[in-house]
Design a protein that fits this description.
Length: 389
């Protein structure tokens, strides 16, 4: 198998020439089609549909899906490449808009959907014609999936959904929603099922777009279901087995968020080095100060080590190995580290680091949620502890 070194980093034995070509494609797209205009998306609060369609046309929305639906049939390492490069864009809201679509929402359809469901929805999802969201989190039920209150009751050849969902990325501008709801008897907390709900379904509405601390270019919403009737054929997977589907997909979500975080950290260090090498102070540049050089060297070392864990774990996933503990480690480690990196890199920018015109200010805000979304750090550490010998 032909190997190639990744752009701007040491060679890794896990990546092939195909992975490298993918990295080049994504980085070129980000540099030419995203970075020059994405400030406007921050103001608008969403990523334009035209950009998402372009990404679909480039084959970036179906990296691991079957070619029969328009996918590229690549692997977990390719997903890591996508997440890293989107993270390097410096626009976390753009990155998560894409990654929710590709790696947090649509996998529910790909892994649990019937042939008819996949044939109906996947081609448009992969092409970027339809944007996907996953509606799992509730105001009182985040990492604790069993605490959700949204219900789905079978009524003839339909299910009737009632409840609400909170913090849903792509919630306003999405087209297809994969919704989790309780379908079991009272007291059976894990009896959750997944449903496909299309925008425009009677009884389904966007209650309000949400204003956030960061990720401003990702649209985020509260969703409401009031006697929302969906066909029984829109049940995704088996009834009362959705909890296990959610738990399984969270493993992919967490490695993706870890890779995105390290892409963000890489970019922040790159920006900080460029700044301190130019910034004059006390008869020289900030780079001349050993304390600053060593702190950046230390952070770069930590990022390199975390990326090595991500790459190894992604490779092990391609081999069908159980990586639950490793993925929980990645999410806890990367979510914490990216915030530490942002703190230092903003600090070294001085007063300019606090200005909205400086990318590092936005990146620091965007990074904060990496220790929360997809499984809070404390929850991840508990998952690791449960699996320790």
């Amino acid at each position: 198998m032909q190997r190639a070194s990744a752009i701007g980093q040491a060679a890794s034995p896990f990546f092939t020439a195909e992975h490298e070509m993918l990295r080049q494609t994504i980085r070129r797209f980000v540099e030419t089609r995203v970075v020059p205009v994405a400030d406007a998306w921050e103001e608008a609060g969403f990523v334009p549909r035209a950009i998402l369609r372009e990404m679909g046309q480039l084959g970036l929305f179906g990296i691991r899906y079957d070619s029969a639906y328009g996918g590229s049939e690549l692997d977990t390492l390719a997903t890591v490449v996508l997440a890293e490069e989107l993270g390097r864009s410096s626009f976390g809201g753009f990155a998560v808009t894409v990654l929710v679509h590709t790696d947090m929402a649509s996998p529910h359809l790909y892994h649990a959907g019937t042939d008819a469901q996949k044939t109906k929805y996947l081609p448009d999802i992969i092409a970027g014609k339809k944007i996907a969201a996953v509606a799992m989190t509730e105001a009182d039920a985040g990492s604790d999936l069993a605490s959700m209150r949204t219900t789905a009751r079978r009524d003839g050849d339909s299910y009737v959904l009632n409840g609400s969902k909170m913090f849903i990325t792509n919630g306003v501008h999405g087209d297809i929603y994969f919704v989790a709801a309780k379908t079991g008897q009272p007291g059976r907390n894990r009896d959750i099922s997944m449903f496909i709900v299309e925008k425009g379904t009677p009884g389904f509405s966007v209650a309000r777009p949400l204003k956030k601390h960061g990720w401003l270019s990702s649209d985020t919403a509260e969703l409401v279901f009031e006697n929302c009737r969906v066909p029984a054929e829109n049940l995704l997977g088996q009834e009362n087995r959705g909890f296990y589907s959610l738990a399984k997909n969270l493993q992919n979500e967490r490695i993706v968020l870890g890779a995105q975080s390290m892409g963000e950290a890489d970019k922040a260090i790159e920006l900080a080095i460029a700044w301190v090498q130019e910034r004059k102070a006390f008869g020289g540049t900030l780079w001349d100060k050993q304390a600053i050089r060593h702190k950046l060297a230390w952070r770069a070392s930590q990022v390199a080590a975390t990326k090595a864990l991500i790459y190894q774990t992604a490779w092990r996933d391609t081999q069908g190995q159980d990586v639950t503990k490793d993925v929980s480690m990645i999410k806890a480690l990367a979510g914490t580290l990216v915030n530490e990196v942002m703190y230092d890199c903003l600090q070294f920018h001085g007063g300019m680091g606090y200005m909205r015109e400086t990318p590092i200010e936005r990146m620091a805000r965007d990074a904060r949620v990496q220790a929360i979304g997809g499984g809070a750090t404390e929850v991840m550490l508990e998952e690791v502890a449960k699996r320790m010998p």
